[in-house]
Amino acid sequence: MRVAVTGASGRLGSALIAALADAPFTGPAGPITWTRADFDLDQPSEVGRLVDRDRPEVVVHCAAWTDVDGCAREPELAIRRNAIATGELAVACAERGLDLLIVSTNEVFDGARTDGRPYAPDEPVSPSNPYGASKAAGEAIAADAFRDARGSLGIARTAWLYGPPGRDFPRKIAEAATTASAAGEPLRVVGDEWGTPSYAADVAEAIIELLAEDAVAGTHHLVGAGVASRADWARDTLARLGIAVPVEEVPGSTWQRASVPPAWAVLAPTPLPSGEPIRPWAQAMAHYAPILRRALATADAR
Question: Is 62 exposed, middle or buried (0-12, 13-18, 19+ CB in 10 A)?
Answer without folding.
Answer: buried
